[in-house]
Amino acid sequence: MTPRDPRTAPEPAVLSGASAPCWVHLVTRDLDDAQRFYGDVLGWTFRRGPLGRDYLMARSGGVPVAGIGAVASAYQVAVAWMPYFSVRNADVVASRIRERSGTVAVGPLTVGQGRAVLAADRDGASFGVWEWTGRAATLAPSGTRAHAWLRLRTRDAFDAAIFYGEVLGWESGESGGCEVAYVKEEVLVRCNGRPLARISSGAVEAAPDPQVRPHWQVQFPVADVGATVFAAERNGGSLMERREVRYGSEATLRDPDGGLFTVTDVRSPAGLDED
């Protein structure tokens, strides 16, 4: 069994709906190194994206799963995996972020068939928003899928849920929108009835460890966590933490450029903790 075995890998979640997570993106310094690492570790293939020579589209089984952009140096942002949330109006959302003590680092910026914003919440966790402006624009173009789930590790899950709810319009009642529920001291975000993200507390003020500093954790489902860890270490990455969780296991890894990501063999971001 390998981490790229399509017969055993969990089914990818569909990221869709108003205010939902719509994409995951790696901000890095070296596209060639990132392509080699993630190709060997997660079995991805790559093609140049529509945003120019500094952008790659990662695919798994022919399905687009993530973007990788060599923009960390150009925009003076940290090497990191970042989630993007679908919005109807990037200008309005950028204003909401600032009004609620968040930070807008870049944008709104016209990029391809959309407008993007790079931002951070009031505890410093980075995220992006995306306004789709292409032909026959929809909030989530048909076929957009990602082999990824999200978890925000932050200081106060309740406060973070209020921030993102007000900024992105969660619980707005809009058709296809996101809803939140409080499950065992975590906030579970559901879009179109499907759990796609969790928000949990536990970070410590000014903690130097990037695993506990407030950040969005991108989780990639794999068939074999151990094999994926081995592949990462063989390709210059490092294991930060491995842990057993209910119904499976997960491991947090660091790529050679410093980007943190998590792999898991749990089949739902809810972890079936709603039982």
From TrEMBL:
InterPro entries: Anthracycline_SecMetBiosynth, Glyas_Bleomycin-R_OHBP_Dase, Glyoxalase_6, Glyoxy/Ble-like_N, VOC_core. SUPFAM superfamilies: Glyoxalase/Bleomycin resistance protein/Dihydroxybiphenyl dioxygenase. PROSITE patterns: VOC. Residues 20-132, 145-266 form the VOC domain. Transmembrane segments: none annotated. This is VOC family protein. It comes from Streptomyces mutomycini.
